[in-house]
Amino acid sequence: MTARTLDGQKIRDQIFAELSDEVRLLTAAGVRPGLAAVLVGENPASQLYVKSKIAACQQLGLSSALLTPPATVSTLHLLAVVEDLNRDNDVDGILVQLPLPPQVDTKRILEAVDPAKDVDGFHPVNLGRLVSGRPGLVACTPAGCMEILRRNDIKIEGANAVVLGRSDIVGKPMALLLMHANATVTICHSKTRGLPDLLRRADIIVAAMGKAGYLEADWIKPGAAVIDVGTNRITDHKEAERLFHGFPDRLEKFRAKGSALVGDVHPGAVNIAGALTPVPGGVGPTTIAMLMSNTVKAARLRRASPKFSATQSTTSAR
Ligand code: NAP
């Protein structure tokens, strides 16, 4: 059996088509949603991520602004940048690209973002809303994973779901979203014992560990749906041989390029799982789609209740 490919690019295109209609309506009503991205320093991966987010804004007709403080920026300076964006009425969404340099207090910066403009869904207010099942801005990667499951008609209600990873950005919100959709959720982390046995009972697996090909194919229940969030660049030849054994095309490409992008799930999972996201081309595109969706939603909500934003801004600055 070969797993059905859960194509993230296709879902991204569907979401973009839906958002285009909404952006057209908002623009006709005099509201052009806008995203401001803060990119600190010159990390090439971060530059690439931000570039694709700005390109998505342009594709959808959203306005965008890019702020590029130097890698030497202080926490206080960055707080001032965020506060300016909080006050700027043309900005609906604020994105602070992570990671920030070590001298910057990342938590303080993320908590300074107005929750009404927190399109990454990282602010504790939005995480709290998610915990209590209230409407808010949900972290883009887990929200995108839910879109992948739903739009592929994968039954979530009553399913046994295992989430690998408990970060604030992916694992925790993912587990909450699955729980709210009535799955029975097990959250695993680096101290979890007996991982293979837990996984073999899972109908849905979401792997977000950041460990190349860690999840072995024979830990997966035949027919399970597997969402691979992991994005790992490998350069080691031995590792490539372990992962691409049985995938001569991928091994060939690795040899030609000297590196490859792989998920947390061993590629051999394609022969066991019922459905599987590719890496790249699975979760990545839906993350960007949900960022756009959150920006449009933030624009809509802020215009519907302008005072909401102002109130949140004052409290977030503390
Ligand atoms: P993170 O903050 O480093 O968290 C990793 C989590 O994995 C931690 O909770 C850790 O447990 C857990 N873990 C580590 N080893 C484990 C093991 N052997 N068994 C079970 N759990 C284990 O990473 P993250 O920010 O959540 O990101 C995870 C991965 O997703 C990365 O590869 C990242 O690049 C990728 N990602 C992709 C996208 C996308 O759009 N495609 C977006 C975001 C992230 P402890 O808590 O015990 O340390």
Report what the structure shows.
The radius of gyration is 20 Å and the shape is globular. Helix 6 (140-151) crosses helix 7 (171-180). The chain has two domains: 29-114, Rossmann fold, CATH 3.40.50.10860; 140-283, NAD(P)-binding Rossmann-like Domain (Rossmann fold, 3-Layer(aba) Sandwich). Mean pLDDT is 95; it is low at 308-318. Strand 5, helix 7 (171-180) and strand 6 form a beta-alpha-beta unit. With 318 residues, it is α/β, with parallel strands linked by helices. Helices cover 45% and strands 13% of the residues. The structure holds NADP nicotinamide-adenine-dinucleotide phosphate. NADP nicotinamide-adenine-dinucleotide phosphate binds at residues 141, 164-167, 169-171, 188-192, 195, 208-211, 229-232, 283-284, 287.
The gyration radius over C-alpha positions equals 20 Å
Largest sheet: 6 strands, parallel
* Low confidence ranges: 308-318
- Can you tell me the CATH superfamily of the largest domain? NAD(P)-binding Rossmann-like Domain
Summarize model confidence as the mean pLDDT: 95
Instruction: Give the quaternary arrangement of the chains.
Output: single chain
Strand arrangement across the biggest beta sheet: 1-11-8-7-5-6
**What's the CATH class of the largest domain, please?**
Alpha Beta
Tell the overall outline. globular
* Structural class computed from helices and strand pairing: alpha/beta
In percent, how helical is the residue content? 40-55%
**What is the name of the CATH topology of the largest domain?**
Rossmann fold
What percentage of amino acids are in beta strands? 5-15%
